DNA sequence: TCATTAAATTGTT
DNA sequence: AACAATTTAATGA
């Protein structure tokens, strides 16, 4: 179990803060618990917090009119989301759902804006985060059309280990094959087959209720 | 600590 | 989608 202190210690943006800034953040950030399958935030609701995953895994997704679910990204330990809508003052554009039992940290808009106004390292972090996320979505557009299911699973997993966006992730990822299916947009059966292929290629090791990444670059470039 | 049972997850069709 | 096999977690002796 990871704590808020661990999250702040591992977050790049927190390392650049002054003691005054960090203590205000620790005082005003609230922790909430979400059971697996529950909604963390609804599409269309006002965005008044910046949210970080302290412990767990959430997915960012939308529902199409016919009820089909499409996942844009998974956010593991150490990942933060919602800064785009927070900066623009718009309502949330995606649903956020906990894939596992998750502890989520919420930073009030006032605190977030205060950091934007007073901390150059925090702004630099936001620039990097937005840039990385842009690159991730551009890459997704590409592989979504070009790659077979093995490649899609491989890149979805690699995205979860993006060291810039999600510095808290280790090599071990606790995620069921069903959850991977949601993230990669393929059926659980295809995930099962894809994982075996990736395991034979020496890129990862399949375990009960999770997997261990052995070759992150190999995953990232699989099928290219 | 060990055995039994239920629940979750995986592997296969 | 359905089913069987496997692993984990919980319970109680």
Note the overall shape.
globular
Number of helices: 10
Low-confidence stretches: none
What is the alpha-carbon Rg in Å? 17 Å
Number of domains: 2
Q: Provide the CATH topology of the largest domain.
A: Jelly Rolls
Supply the helix-strand structural class.
Answer: alpha+beta
Strand order of the largest sheet: 1-8-3-6
The main β sheet shows up as:
4 strands, antiparallel
- Average pLDDT for all residues: 90
Report the count of strand segments: 11
Explain the overall architecture.
It is a single chain. The chain is α+β, with helices and mostly antiparallel strands and 224 residues long. It has two domains: 4-129, Sandwich (Jelly Rolls), CATH 2.60.120.10; 148-221, Orthogonal Bundle (Arc Repressor Mutant, subunit A). Helices cover 46% and strands 23% of the residues. The protein is built from ten helices and eleven strands. Strands 1-8-3-6 form a four-stranded antiparallel β-sheet. It has a four-stranded antiparallel β-sheet with strand order 2-7-4-5. It has a three-stranded antiparallel β-sheet with strand order 9-11-10. Strand 10 (204-207) and strand 11 form a beta hairpin. It binds a DNA duplex (13 and 13 nucleotides) through residues 176-178, 188-189, 192, 196, 206, 208-209.
């Amino acid at each position: 179990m990871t704590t808020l202190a661990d999250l702040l210690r591992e977050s790049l943006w927190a390392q650049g803060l002054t003691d005054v800034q960090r203590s205000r953040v620790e005082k005003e950030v609230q922790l909430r618990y979400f059971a697996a399958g529950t909604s963390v935030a609804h599409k269309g609701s006002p965005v008044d917090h910046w949210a970080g995953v302290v412990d767990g895994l959430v997915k960012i997704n939308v529902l199409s009119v016919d009820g089909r679910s499409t996942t844009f990204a998974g956010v593991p330990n150490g990942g933060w989301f919602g800064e785009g809508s927070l900066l623009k003052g718009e309502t949330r554009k995606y649903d956020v759902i906990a894939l596992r039992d998750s502890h989520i940290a919420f930073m009030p808009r006032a605190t977030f804006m205060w950091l934007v106004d007073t901390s150059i390292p925090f702004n630099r972090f936001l620039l990097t985060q937005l840039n990385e996320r842009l690159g991730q979505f551009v890459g997704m557009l590409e592989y979504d059309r070009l790659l077979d299911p093995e490649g899609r699973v491989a890149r979805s997993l690699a995205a979860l280990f993006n060291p810039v966006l999600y510095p808290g992730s280790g090599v071990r990822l606790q995620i069921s094959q069903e959850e991977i299916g949601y993230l990669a947009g393929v059926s659980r059966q295809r995930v099962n087959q894809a994982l075996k292929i990736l395991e034979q290629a020496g890129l990862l090791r399949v375990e009960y209720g999770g997997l261990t990444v052995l070759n992150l670059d190999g995953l990232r470039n699989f099928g290219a």
